[in-house]
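We treat protein structure as text, and this decision shapes the records that our systems exchange. We quote a single record here, exactly as it is kept in our systems:
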Amino acid sequence: MNDRAEKTKNAGIIGIIGNIFLLIIKAIVGFASKSQAMIADSINSAGDIFASLMTFIGNKIASAPNDEDHNFGHGKAEYIFSMFISISMILVAAKLLYNSIMTLILGSELTFSWFLVIVCVVTIITKLILFIYVKNIYKKYNNILLEANMEDHRNDCIVTTFTLISILLARIEIYWFDSIVGIGISLWICYTGIKIFLESYNVLMDKSIDEKTKDIILDLAHSYKNIKKIEDIISSPVGYKYIIFLTIQVDGEMSTKDSHDLADCLEMDITKLEKVYKAIVHVEPYIDNKN
């Protein structure tokens, strides 16, 4: 297992342990105090456990090397499992939104407790540590599974801060804010879920490489003086990297060996780019359309 896969696995395991701990304390105190915001927060932690589990499983599959049935590896598993995470987030958000709206209409039975405050503070500190830890790994390896986990941890810090505010307001008998926070939490979770879903969908539907990297590839090709024309460039994602198919035209009088050597050199240069998994260069004789 490479370093990228190992770090992602560790992030998944640590996330599972941390979220199980938070789920238990949030659920106990939330149901005891009848805080809709804390109950919503506890369900969100249950979703985070699922997200961390999907990160662990998805990373394990994605890190498997290429084989006869999967010539370009298993990298797209990252995006398949990140879609599972996003769908679970959207479903959880819908349920929380319904519960919070009903509580707002029917009234809240929140009972103030200093245990609620303590749980919020512990959650914020725990999630902030997890967010910083995963963010540092994500910045280095650009893994969408880590991105989903990172955003989960960040969102929880924000969400729990508002939960803490609603609990403190309940002490002075302002109860409606608790339900409003529950609604806010559900909408935030839904937004994040849709964002991750669309990012995963684009890769699974073979979205082209970004324009900046495409321009770098074209500049590399143009730096070869024997390349008369770049006829076509196509890209296809394999996990977090891309296969690049490039068709170039060279002087028709160039020997087969020389044209193949040129193509091999260009392929090696393109493959050195961070986002490129493999480059395939096809050579054709140059056609001057002006004549």
About this structure: The longest helix spans residues 3-33. The chain has a mean pLDDT of 82.
